[in-house]
User: Which sequence fits this backbone?
């Protein structure tokens, strides 16, 4: 089965490069709404071929634009989220050079940040604010790196600054916390690509695993008025941790019911 997944993955990327990239470039240039459908359907296809089933719990707050803040487990977080909504992402600069996926990320308007470059924060935050003012929905991973998902790392507050500034001017977007975890149907598992891991062996292990559940829990909106960026970062992290605990608890209850 893993070999079939690998073949399907290669064919999906090749098809995207031949057909979707030119169409998406044209759709974005002309402002056609189909650009959003291209993003979500392509990401659904990628999730399917590598064996990820997205389990969405709840939904985004209805008020737009939305500043979505999530914990970061793996690169697959991006395709899982984008299979649900046509988001604009803040991503590390290395993503721009990934084969095909990097090109599609650029075509979708992804904002790239160079990790550790403090002098670049102001430019990036201005770009985030521009997307929000244009009515776009953003996704930020404030841990700054992926991990094994066992714990939620501290949220860096630098990119919460646009929320603080916009709230002070009465134009605050909706701050939406999102919790992401992966399970094999029984317990939480590690699907992260981090440290000195090589990508292809990591991808092969993911494909061999079979069906992997990606739990995405959407939380209630967080009030931003009158709060500074550090307070917003801490409160959002606490909400994400609560949501992860709730998902784990629901999974434990389901396992107990299965045993009865």
Assistant:
């Amino acid at each position: 089965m893993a070999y079939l997944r690998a073949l399907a993955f290669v064919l999906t990327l090749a098809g995207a490069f031949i057909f979707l990239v030119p169409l998406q470039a044209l759709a974005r240039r002309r402002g056609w709404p189909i650009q959003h459908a291209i993003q979500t359907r392509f990401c659904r296809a990628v999730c399917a071929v590598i064996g990820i089933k997205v389990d969405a719990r709840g939904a985004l707050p209805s008020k737009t634009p939305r500043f979505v803040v999530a914990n970061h487990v793996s690169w697959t977080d991006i395709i899982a989220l984008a299979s649900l909504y046509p988001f604009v992402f803040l991503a590390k600069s290395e993503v721009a050079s990934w084969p095909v996926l990097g090109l599609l990320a650029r075509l979708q308007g992804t904002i790239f940040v160079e990790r550790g470059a403090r002098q670049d924060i102001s430019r990036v935050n201005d770009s985030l604010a521009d997307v929000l003012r244009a009515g776009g929905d953003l996704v930020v991973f404030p841990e700054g790196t992926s991990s094994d998902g066992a714990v939620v790392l501290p949220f860096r507050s630098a990119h919460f600054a646009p929320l603080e500034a916009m709230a002070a001017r009465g134009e605050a977007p909706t701050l939406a916390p999102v919790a992401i975890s992966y399970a094999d149907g029984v317990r939480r598992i590690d699907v992260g690509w981090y440290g000195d891991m090589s990508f292809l062996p990591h991808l092969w292990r993911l494909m061999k695993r079979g069906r992997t559940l990606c739990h995405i829990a959407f939380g209630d909106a967080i009030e931003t008025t009158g709060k500074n960026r550090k307070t917003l970062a801490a409160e959002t992290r606490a909400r994400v941790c609560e949501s992860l605990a709730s998902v784990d608890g629901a999974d434990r209850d389901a396992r107990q019911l299965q045993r009865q």
